[in-house]
Amino acid sequence: MSQLVTVREVDALEPEVVGELLRDHPYDDYRRHRRIAPDAALAFLRERAQESAAAERCHRLLARDRSDGRPAGVLMLQYLSHDSELLGRPMGGIPFLLVRADHPDPGDVLRALLLSLPYLVQREGYSHVSVRIDSADIAAYHELTDAGFRLMETLVSMAYDTERRGIGVIDPAEFGFDGVVRTVEPRDHDAVAEMSRKRFTLNRYHLDQSISHEAAGELMARWARSYCENDQDCQVWVAEGKGGELAGFLGHQLNRGLEKHSGILVSGRALLAVEDPRTGVGQMLSRAHTWQSPGDYKEADTQLNNYGMIKASFKLDMDMVRTKYTFHR
């Protein structure tokens, strides 16, 4: 039992509590985007935290200092309905695992929160729990590992700054491609989903031995299809050969919430797949994203061991802006 904090499950998190826990938060996702003001990025993070805390089937563990009762940290556990339905097992996710920035012993706070987690998991009947943290949060890495979580992936995020790097229109011939790059059409949806099912094999779902490759492929297929079907907040580029076949696609999502707070639009969470990785189609689609997708910053995520994608991103004048660890238990 911690000598510094007490942990209780609470019915709600007041905005003042969320605000105190996020004051001077050191691991904001957009701290390396020079045109996004820190206060705007934190306002967006506060909004996300409050939305998560108020969501249906979200359970909140709040740690308070024994000395003065100040909020010290929080762990939220959320039911993942989409994953649970697809995989046929109750799955939970931890959207927020936070410690107050000025706390003298963040490891103790995290340890106390994670010691209380198994009771919630057992009570709710979850057979699988996942969480993602910033790789700079060494205390969280240590405590999650000690609590039995397994590292599944290290995610690297690259960003293209249009103000610094400029925009243009791609010429497929320059990439050795005999065809066109265009936005997705309804007739492409099945092909995009099937390519996602076959080509995404380095992600955390495929690397988790408790999840079948068939189910992991279906998760990726549904993710790609959701991008195709949401043309308000997403965009998908496809490379179509002269015979009408799809050689690859790149889909991304527009961060409207961050834009509301900062006035800066980031297009990210990109999914890129190609039929033949030996061709220049992947680099061509990535260039289409950096030059022609809407947004002030164009992001792309990949696993740390996807060396080809990281190398291609640097060639496209993208900067590494964040790295994150994903854990499963």
From TrEMBL:
InterPro entries: Acyl_CoA_acyltransferase. SUPFAM superfamilies: Acyl-CoA N-acyltransferases (Nat) (SSF55729). It comes from the Bacteria. This is N-acetyltransferase domain-containing protein.
